């Protein structure tokens, strides 16, 4: 095996597929002049991948041939048009022409299947010799499998095609709909590379698609499953995030939250390359606190990304404006990418890809996820979601991003709980709680964990009003606030008054 991004000096060059995420997984593209198998159930995206592959070749003046055994050329053109693409300049060959279905060409039961199979293979060879393409797609192998009728004959014909294409210096994609018996790996042993596409339907929400490179001889590809979507224009692949590959140098000097008292609680501010977890019951002010930190970064001219899962976008915008923290000007000038996420329609890979785009292309220096509850609970079928979140936060840390996560707790007062404890992922943990004093519901905040600084170990009252957030002096006359059963001890220190 070779190091990442390399192919043997004596091996084939990498041929871009036209799908940037897939090329990244393959460290440049498919090995040229080889036969590759693209397998997947109907609707998984095989034809779309093949069209992207041929059109990419057309862009670099490589001729392409699409041999279809199951679809008509009109259907292929319509499929391409649905993505805003044109197959003009690509040779389309229907192996069974329209006049092949008349009575003269029908095969009787007296004719052996070898005749039909032989004619089909000869038709493929004839068309390749006629057009002399650089890139070839054969769609699909299930037709050849049915004609062959037994595994030995089928394998021999595929091997014959493989050797023929090798002499023609073609790069070939053979599409297979996985209609063979489960566990039949004949094609895997013949093909130089195998890419498997999967489509899974959840109990609720859109179907999820993912791909895996099963084998690619002589190439150190990125293993494992990678999410992808089919969008207008073709496949969009989101390579599995590996945080250690994305390190960059950055200034670790803490940045201000915009509130002197909050900076004091955090031991000086929010250090770049760390993530902060804001946790507390509904309505206590977690989102408002995060917005205050966001506004401070935007006022310093920084770019930021905000991913909103829980609240409606219009509600968040109006509430922030009423609190003197209007976000609209920063959206208008391009500093802030504020995106409302429907988690039922989004895969973890797509979400990680969106954050990578914000960081690497839009230069975001602060990322806020509001909230983890919706993100984690809306995708219960993804068993390794917390592990993916760990990788995502590690990536943000490697990039020097100030990241803020919001986690809601069940209940309002007393013993508060969450279905998922992610506090171990956080560098800083801030707890916001309600407490009662003199017949009034009040709010408190405390930093209970930081990994980078010596933080203030006090509990402070805070108030949210038309002027934003006001934070008071440490509460020295109360006990057990964080336990949910506060008790006034002694003293006559004043609490925050209305402005």
From TrEMBL:
Pfam families, A to Z: ATPase
SUPFAM superfamilies: P-loop containing nucleoside triphosphate hydrolases (SSF52540)
GO molecular function annotation: ATP binding; hydrolase activity; protein serine/threonine kinase activity
Source species, domain of life: Bacteria
Domain KaiC: 13-251, 253-485
Keywords: Hydrolase, Kinase, Phosphoprotein, Repeat, Transferase
Signal sequence interval, chain numbering: none
SMART domains named among the record's database cross-references: AAA
EC assignment: 2.7.11.1
Protein name: non-specific serine/threonine protein kinase
Source species of the chain: Aurantiacibacter atlanticus
Organism lineage string: Bacteria, Pseudomonadati, Pseudomonadota, Alphaproteobacteria, Sphingomonadales
């Amino acid at each position: 095996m070779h190091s990442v991004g390399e192919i043997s000096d004596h091996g084939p060059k990498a041929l871009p597929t036209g799908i940037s995420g897939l090329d990244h997984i393959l460290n440049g593209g498919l090995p040229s002049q080889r036969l590759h198998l693209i397998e997947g159930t109907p609707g998984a995206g095989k034809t779309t991948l093949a069209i992207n592959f041929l059109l990419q070749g057309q862009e670099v003046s490589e001729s392409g041939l699409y041999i279809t055994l199951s679809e008509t050329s009109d259907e292929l053109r319509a499929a391409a048009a649905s993505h805003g693409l044109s197959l003009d300049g690509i040779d389309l060959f229907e192996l069974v022409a329209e006049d092949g279905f008349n009575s003269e060409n029908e095969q009787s039961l007296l004719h052996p299947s070898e005749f039909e199979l032989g004619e089909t293979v000869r038709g493929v060879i004839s068309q390749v010799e006629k057009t002399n393409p650089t890139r070839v797609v054969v769609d699909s192998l299930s037709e050849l499998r049915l004609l062959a009728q037994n595994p030995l004959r089928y394998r021999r014909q595929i091997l014959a095609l493989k050797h023929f294409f090798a002499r023609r210096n073609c790069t070939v994609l053979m599409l297979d709909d996985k209609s063979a018996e489960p566990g039949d790996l004949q094609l895997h042993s013949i093909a130089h590379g195998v890419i498997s596409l999967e489509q899974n339907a959840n109990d609720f929400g859109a179907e999820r698609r993912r791909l895996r490179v099963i084998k690619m001889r002589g190439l150190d590809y990125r293993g494992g499953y990678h999410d992808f979507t089919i969008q207008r224009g073709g496949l969009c692949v989101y390579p599995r995030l590996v945080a250690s590959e994305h390190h960059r140098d950055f200034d670790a000097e803490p940045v201000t939250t915009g509130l002197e008292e909050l900076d004091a609680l955090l031991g000086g501010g929010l250090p770049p390359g760390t993530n902060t977890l804001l946790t507390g019951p509904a309505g206590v002010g977690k989102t408002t606190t995060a917005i205050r930190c966001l506004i401070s970064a935007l006022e310093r001219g920084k770019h930021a990304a905000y991913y909103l899962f829980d609240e409606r976008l219009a509600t968040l915008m109006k509430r922030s404006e009423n609190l003197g923290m209007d976000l609209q000007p920063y959206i208008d000038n391009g500093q802030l990418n504020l995106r409302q996420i429907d988690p039922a329609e989004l895969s973890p890979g797509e979400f990680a890809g969106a954050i990578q785009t914000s960081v690497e292309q839009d230069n975001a220096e602060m990322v806020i996820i509001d909230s983890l509850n919706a993100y984690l609970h809306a995708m219960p079928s993804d068993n390794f979601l917390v592990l993916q979140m760990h990788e995502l936060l590690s990536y943000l840390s490697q990039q020097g991003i100030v990241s803020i996560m919001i986690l809601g707790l069940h209940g309002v007062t007393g013993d508060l709980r969450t279905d998922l404890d992610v506090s171990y992922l956080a560098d800083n943990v801030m707890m916001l709680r309600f407490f009662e004093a003199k017949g009034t519901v009040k709010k408190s905040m405390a930093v209970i964990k930081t990994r980078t600084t010596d933080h203030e170990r006090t509990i402070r009252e805070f108030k949210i009003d038309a002027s934003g957030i006001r934070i008071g002096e440490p509460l020295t006359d109360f006990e057990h606030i964080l336990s949910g059963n506060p008790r006034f001890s002694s003293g006559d220190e004043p609490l925050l008054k209305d402005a």
